[in-house]
Amino acid sequence: MAEQQQTHGNAVQTTGHAWDGDLQEFNNPLPSWWLWTFYATIVFALVYWLMYPAWPIGKSFTKGINTITFEQNGEQVTTHWNTRALLIKEMQTGEEALKQQDYLKKVGAASYEEIQNDPDMMGFVNSMAKGLFGDNCAACHGVGGTPTMIGQYPNLGDDAWLWGGDIAAIQATITDGRMGYMPGFAATFSDEQLDQVTAYVLSLSGVVQGEPAQVAAGQKIFQGETGGCYYCHTKAGTGMASVGSANLTDAIWTVADVPGAASDAEKSARVRSVIKNGVQRQMPAWEGRLSAAEIKLLTVYVHSLGGGK
Amino acid sequence: MSDSQRPEEVLYQSRIPIFPRSVKGRFRNIKWVILALAYSVYFLLPWLPWSRDNAPDQAVLFDLAGRKFYMFDLVVHPQDIFWLAGLLMIFAFLLFFVTGVAGRVFCGYFCFQTLWTDVFIFIEHLVQGERPARIRLSKQDWNAEKIRKIGLTHALWLLMAFVTGLSFVLYWGEAGQLVTDFFTGQAPFPAYATAAFLTATTYVMAGVAREQVCTYMCPYARFQSAMFDPETLVVSYDKARGEGAKGRQKLHKGFKTLEERHAAGAGDCIDCGYCVQVCPTGIDIRNGIQLECINCALCIDACDNIMDSLGWPRGLISYTSEKALETGEKTRLLRPKVIAYALALLAAIGVLVWSVAQQAPYDLIVSQVRQPIYVRLSDGSIQNSYEIKLNNKTTEPMTLNFAIQGLDGAELDMGRFSTVELGPGHHLRLQAKVKLSPEGRTGGTYNYRIHVLPEAPADLPQVDANAVFYLPEAR
Fold it and tell me: What are the DSSP calls for A237-293, one per residue?
């Protein structure tokens, strides 16, 4: 190799070190523009430090001379450049944010009927309300409106509605909140009566057929003045939306996790516990926390989840 | 070696300026033809009209804002972006194939760095003259002539670079309107930024950096060796013929004819240096295969011209392979590697063409709602929800219905949208619910298909997509 280099007169510079007598290292220097590029990055860094937040100083940092102005509570606020302020500003004046606001205005001005018949607006409702639901509702009702366990909070994904499933009822529920209450019958019923009512309630939906005599006794308590269950649940057991009482004749359970129970005895025990101890649930009012347009979006979204009435 | 004897170490070296001499010949002509073709396509394509309904009348238009790429009769939508992967695969295999057969053909003839450098050198030659004149000019002190010539060269380079940058921008907007907007200050900021950026890079790369781009920046120059084998065609100097036993000899007394030279043990190379002077990367091809060599074949033209003028046979520098030089055997073109590259290339082209031909006039994407994966309804049946995305790729409105197949007893509920209107180029997201009674079925997943049944226009094909129904275990 070295010989070849010499014959062609191509003297290649070496680093000047020699090991083991003749082992040398070629020096292939970088092109000098490479060096200038490196200097340019240093200049860039200096300018960057001047313009943007850069160096930490104790608990603070150098803020840079670049600023962002955005609106907060009706006032113009100016702060040093940072990505949080940038996001706020973009959400107020950004091209996409303005498009979203236009859509929100359009949906806010439209009637429920108009929104529901327009596939385009429904597409907007589904994407925007999904975020709103995730921020405000999913903590209790679960993502997609279905809680992970029966008994905690009502499932919005099914077709059963405690407080009514039409648009007006859903809007009222979100706006004003709901108080769900069923008294406990521990003091009213004997153990035997509790068993009888439990057997009747389970027989209503046919989940557990029960012993006819016990069921008949339970029916008497349910539909008579001893229990008075029919005040809220109606004599047929189908529930009333005006008081938020559950329909006991369908396959949906909102408090006792009957479908999740392994045996008939377990199912009975779960229903018996609800009758004995009662139910107390509350949904807060969202008026004041969400804008009218946001409540409108959520109403349509929740209505669409389980196929509203 | 002691420190005192050590040569002064250079950490950074300045570029040694290269002033390629012009040359005429076969390969130069091929390169001019390719250059003319490439430039015609690049600069004129944005101006080619193409009549379309409800869409821009520009043959090639990459409409980023409208999220559509128009290429003649083909409209590419964002969903078709995987075609880009196919295209890149084709380019890669084509590159491997060509490199396997004929070495760095791409570098020498088609690479835009080579094409633009050629034009920039042409401009330099036009203003400053042939190689000796350019060397003289660069060495002389600054005076009016030097300022005028160097200034004019750079001005023309900048103009060329700007036309290049502007032409690129025209692919992304309606050309006529965009040019008007550009010069009246109405064009969008990205247009100015892109044009300025490309003007700067073209000027720097083709005017100033030149061969350094190939040597220091281009990864292809570094990994091409992996595609080479002893039978790859490369531009090579026939050392055995050129040097003989006694090396190169200039044409001087006693070495004038081939017979004299051979008798004296000298080779055919007259060491005129023409091959070195024409080289755009400033190397000496007689040193063998080199990283810097872009295989532009201009040294072949140069050497052939000299051989012709001497009346000696051509081919002292030629496209040949290492094996042919060493053994004299002919280079095989059909080698297993080349065949494999060719097959891979054909397969990639086939798949892409098939995929483009199969492009449906509208897209259907079905994705299952997984939160919750199922819901139990009041009558005991199980409901799964799906998001259906539709995208009309045509310029006509369409009316669509929906149906399911392959899941007995299931009901599809599209809410109020069992029939939807889908405007031209419009897309929609719909919620679909499918209800199934668990009676007589075991829990698990069931595969079925969701169909879109077009109502209008009549010639629209049906499209369907796979969907999965999840049925929980009965308790």
Answer: S---TTTTPPPSSSS--SSS--TT-SSHHHHHHHHHHHHHH-EEEEE---BTTB-HH
Nearest CA in chain A to B283: A10
Backbone angles phi, psi at A47, to 5 degrees: -65, -40
Cross-chain Cβ contact B286/A8 below 8 Å: yes
Give yes or no: residues B205 and B245 share one domain.
no
Q: What is the pLDDT of residue B80?
A: 86
- The DSSP letter of residue B266 is B
Tokens of B411: 């009901």
Any domain includes A38 = yes
- Does the pLDDT at position A193 exceed 90? yes
Burial of B421 (0-12, 13-18, 19+ CB in 10 A): middle
Domain range spanning residue A246?
130-305
The answer to whether residue A103 sits within a structural domain is no
Residue B376 with chain A: CB contacts under 8 Å: 158, 251-252, 259
Span A77-90, pLDDT tens digits: 999 999 999 999 99
Closest residue by Cα to residue B360 from B71, B50, B75: B75
C-alpha distances out from residue B152 to A212, B136, B159, Å: 108, 17, 10
pLDDT per residue as tens digits for the range B263-277: 888 889 999 999 999
Residue from B269, B271, B273, B293 nearest B283 by CA: B293
State the complex-level ipTM.
0.77
The boundaries of the domain holding residue B314 are 234-327
Label residue A2 by pLDDT band (50, 70, 90). Answer: very low
pLDDT less than 50: residues of chain B: 1-6
The nearest alpha carbon in chain A to B418 belongs to: A119
For chain A, give the percent of residues with pLDDT over 90: 69
**Whole-number pLDDT of residue B467:** 95
pLDDT(A12) > 70: no
- Asked whether residue B187 falls in the same domain as residue B114, the answer is yes
Ordered alpha helix ranges (H), B108-257? 112-128, 131-139, 144-170, 175-184, 189-202, 211-212, 219-223, 239-243
> Which chain B residues touch A if contact means CB-CB below 8 Å?
1, 6-7, 9-15, 209, 212, 216, 247, 284, 286-287, 369, 371-372, 375-380, 383, 385, 413, 415-417, 420-421, 428-431, 433, 475
Residue ranges with strand state E in B204-356: 234-237, 317-320
Instruction: Quote the Cα angle for A286-A289-A294, to 5°.
Output: 80
Core vs surface per residue B63-97: b (16+ CB within 10 A) or e: beeeebbbeeeebbbeebeebeebeebbeebbbbb
Percent of chain B beyond pLDDT 90? 61
Lookup result for tokens 């044009």: B195
What confidence tier does A305 reach under pLDDT thresholds 50, 70, 90? confident
What tokens were used for B358? Answer: 């199969």
- Residue B110 pairs with which residues in a beta bridge? none
